[in-house]
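Narrative summary of target 7.
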Amino acid sequence: QEQLVESGGGLVQAGGSLRLSCAASGRTFSSYNMGWFRQAPGKEREFVAAITRYGRSTYYADSVKGRFTISRDNAKNTVYLQMNSLKPEDTAVYYCAAALFRGGPFSNSYSDSRSYNYWGQGTQVTVSS
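Modeled conformation, tokenized:
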């Protein structure tokens, strides 16, 4: 079982950068594909980015492509989300999530929140204009 703890959120001006971290407590971190989702007030949770177990493949929502970068360090049981050129519309609570690898391509399911088994508590990102 994985426990996920996000950090790195905060208040930043438009055009600025933040780096989110998500630390996992389990011993089998490399068994999980990892994702970042976000939820703005009054909106549904949406997919942001995902990365496969050993970092060979990454996926992004169109709204963040070219601005955000997901990465992971399996030795540190941590996944990161580097966010550059932030916009006010990026304001949301950001959640990391872990999807246990069960075989089959992650490319078919990375954006579906139902594919993920464990979730962090979220970290607030606020971008001021």
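The chain has no helices and eleven strands.
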